[in-house]
Specification:
This protein has 325 residues and is an alpha/beta fold. The chain has 2 domains: 166 residues, Bordetella uptake gene, domain 1 (D-Maltodextrin-Binding Protein, domain 2); 97 residues, 3-Layer(aba) Sandwich (D-Maltodextrin-Binding Protein, domain 2). It contains 12 helices and 10 strands. The chain has a 5-stranded mixed sheet, with helices on both faces. A 5-stranded mixed sheet has the order 7-6-8-5-9, covered by helices on one side.
């Protein structure tokens, strides 16, 4: 009886191993075959913004590195929430990715409970971190942040400020500045930095907070003037422009990060293959030079490091939300 019992236990163990093995190897086999068709990289903000421009510097390398084309899909709206939701609902097979960022993947879920945060999507990698700059048109009477604040104090509600979406990083810092400087302004939300830039160039707003990537060409053409960098240190591309810390105003927030996410449940081997591919893309010398011309640089993080960074960042805004509620 005892012998039959031992044989029975052995048979069940063998059956368990055989039955589980295909499931354990499926994701590995899937990664080996991946990708076998084009990959969609969703940029959830408007055309011409920093997400769109940054992605275009490296996606052309995907056929060489991954063997398949990576296609940028612009899905603006809701401060990035629409594009984020599209990826969240997508099949977790590695063929629909999100080029997410601080605004729609840390701030919106932390402050409003909408869009998707670190518990809703898989972290693939961080691409970079970039600080915005307060810009005015070159014909503006404002030469410094002090000029702008003095005008706002003397003319409550008249200064118009443009930013890439309600509760975006730029909007959040501006609300903080209004409280600290004791000013009241007219805030104008756009669907991304590209649209805010158009509004500024067209004279529809007086000042805007936009990263260097889409704005430097217009600065070099003499159309824009930078007032200050939204950071604790100066920006290397504009060494003569003071930081907000130097001007006496700083939130302590790091900046606007961009990272690649995938739908929840995407197999880990696929995540790792994608992360390795993005690492190679962002280490390419020509790609680095292309992004440098746009006034930016890469700050890559792998899946696990980025996942922790994202969770910590989300918590910062969760804590900061109390200031505006």
């Amino acid at each position: 009886m005892r012998r039959h019992f031992r044989i029975g236990k052995l048979v069940w163990r063998v059956l368990l191993i055989v039955s589980v093995f295909p499931f354990l190897s499926f994701s590995t086999l899937q990664a080996q075959d991946y990708p076998n068709k084009p990959i969609g990289l969703v940029a959830p903000m408007g055309i011409g913004g920093s997400s769109d421009l940054t992605a275009r510097t490296f996606v052309h390398l995907s056929p060489e590195i991954l063997g398949q084309q990576m296609l940028i899909q612009l899905k603006p709206g809701g401060g990035g929430a629409i594009g984020t939701e599209y990826v969240y609902q997508a099949k977790p097979d590695g063929y629909t990715l999100l080029l997410g960022h601080t605004n729609c993947n840390s701030i919106l879920p932390a402050l409003e409970g909408r869009s998707r945060g670190p518990e809703d999507l898989e972290s693939v990698c961080r691409i970079n971190v970039q600080n915005s700059i307060y810009w005015v048109r070159s014909d503006s009477p404002f030469k410094t942040i002090k000029d702008m604040i003095d005008y706002a104090k003397a003319n409550p509600g008249k200064l118009s400020f443009g930013h890439p979406g309600t509760w975006s990083f730029a909007d959040l810092e501006w609300r903080w500045l209004e409280i600290k400087a004791g000013i009241k302004t007219r805030s104008v939300a756009y669907d991304g930095g590209g649209e805010a830039l158009i509004g500024l160039l067209g004279g529809h707003i007086q000042v805007a907070s936009i990263p260097p990537t889409p704005t430097l060409p217009h600065y070099k053409a003499g159309k824009l003037r930078p007032l200050a960098v939204q950071a604790q240190t100066r920006y290397a591309g504009l060494p003569n422009v003071p930081s907000m810390k130097e001007e006496g105003y700083v939130t302590g927030l790091e900046g606007l990060w961009k990272g690649v996410m995938a739908p929840k449940g995407t197999p880990r081997p696929v995540i790792e293959k994608l992360a390795a591919a993005f690492k190679k893309m962002t280490e390419n010398k020509q790609v680095i030079a292309s992004l440098a011309k746009l006034g930016d640089e890469f700050h890559y993080m792998g899946p696990d490091e980025f996942a922790k960074y994202w969770r910590d960042d989300y918590q910062v805004y969760k804590d900061m939300a109390k200031m505006f509620k």
